[in-house]
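Dear colleague,

Thank you for sharing your sequence with our group. We've completed the structure prediction you requested, and as agreed, I am returning the results in plain text so they can be pasted directly into your records. Please verify that the sequence below matches your submission; if there's any discrepancy, let me know and we will rerun it promptly.
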Amino acid sequence: MDALNAQQLHGFSPALDLIAIVESSLELKEDTNRDAPLCLLQLAPYDPRHTVYTLSRCERHSISHPGPIHMYVYEEEPENLARHFLLLSVLLDSSLLPKERMEIFLELHSNAMLRERTATYLGRLLTMLPCLTERVE
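Please find the predicted structure tokens below.
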């Protein structure tokens, strides 16, 4: 939050393919281990646009980077991190049809009012959220 207690919910930059950015910088280095895990850190992206865009383009990078990809997100505000988890969990929920997933994602991402069906789905997801955010000691 800023000094006026306004919560930043959307970023100002277009979605970026983070793997493509890393690969373009690694092309200059011949001794790069392509099988090692690729670790990506996002600092305060405010919404999952970079994560979603990067995940949607992973198949294009499978030949140039066959190793695993680890994505990390740092948010100063826990509300933004919870929103990030929530929106990603909707997109990755295979129990929903693709059209239904897209409708719920757009509704949660942009609307202040929710349909009853989306509110029920949101209630189910919110029971799982504390499990995702607990600290491992």
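Summary note from our side: The first strand starts at residue 38 and ends at 43.

Kind regards,
the structure core
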